[in-house]
Amino acid sequence: xxxxxxxxxxxxxxxxxxxxxxxxxxxxxxxxxxxxxxxxxxxxxxxxxxxxxxxxxxxxxxxxxxxxxxxxxxxxxxxxxxxxxxxxxxxxxxxxxxxxxxxxxxxxxxxxxxxxxxxxxxxxxxxxxxxxxxxxxxxxxxxxxxxxxxxxxxxxxxxxxxxxxxxxxxxxxxxxxxxxxxxxxxxxxxxxxxxxxxxxxxxxxxxxxxxxxxxxxxxxxxxxxxxxxxxxxxxxxxxxxxxxxxxxxxxxxxxxxxxxxxxxxxxxxxxxxxxxxxxxxxxxxxxxxxxxxxxxxxxxxxxxxxxxxxxxxxxxxxxxxxxxxxxxxxxxxxxxxxxxxxxx
Length: 344
Ligand code: NAD
Ligand code: ZN
Fold this sequence. Notes:
Helix content: 25-40%
Bound molecules: nicotinamide-adenine-dinucleotide, zinc ion
Number of domains: 2
Structural class: alpha/beta
Oligomer: single chain
Shape: globular
Number of strands: 16
Number of helices: 10
CATH topology of the largest domain: Quinone Oxidoreductase, Chain A, domain 1
């Protein structure tokens, strides 16, 4: 089969021919219908050799959807021909976190050598994908896999971040979304569907700001050194109850910390290399800072339910497998509107 692999540190990924995998006992093979490209792949491919831990060659793609194509011994619960989405942050399946469905926070996965597809295990930007267990599949039903595959990360991650701070987002509250790319533009829709908060979006790119307004942001501001001050002005000097930073770089974290209200919450979702200073004098009283990672199995079911009800959607640009390296170049250049989706 053909797959997009990261082969060499520092070199662009390329389309290669690899052996079509066979599902072992308990595993499911999917014929991939769609795979999303995430900025985290960019992060992974930017790491120097000493910090890179994902194995080479690495078949990319941690947002996957497919048609069940072959079942390993003993697999029940899905049938060949089912259209499914893949839950990516695989855990051990039996610990306390996994029992709650929070496999994203399984403390044993790394030691057991369990890694998400595309982030250690072979990923979804390939003709076929092996999924380690049927519990990591969610039926898509009549949802279009191409339009919805990215809900497995670009939907699930903001949903998880927002769900945790929902008690802050009462009527009259304000939520700030920094970075209105793949995750951010879905995050805005989730905020609008689930809360009464006013949504202020920040980005450095005018087209992304236009997209933010289109998907429901009330205000769209340039993300610069004045942004925190403008958010304070828009909130009568109080700041925002919730700030979601989908960039996570030093300047955006500074904006987040400078615009959160007392008793508010900052969620640093982006892996932009910045860190927050927390302490008396640096942080408003009773404010919290969290670093959410992906989401739980039940949350993915909830996100897909929102899509079924028409409450959220993903703006996509589609690419063939051969065009996938170009799609990553465009993602790197900040030139993708919404999410890039590859149809292998
Ligand atoms: P993306 O490239 O689609 O979107 C990033 C957006 O941020 C773009 O619109 C870009 O214009 C904007 N931006 C860049 N610099 C900015 C700045 N200084 N101020 C405001 N906006 C700025 O990326 P994505 O796929 O949505 O991912 C967003 C971040 O979240 C990445 O760092 C990614 O690695 C991370 N991520 C984290 C998790 C998690 O579990 N925590 C999961 C997925 C992705
Ligand atoms: Zn991701």
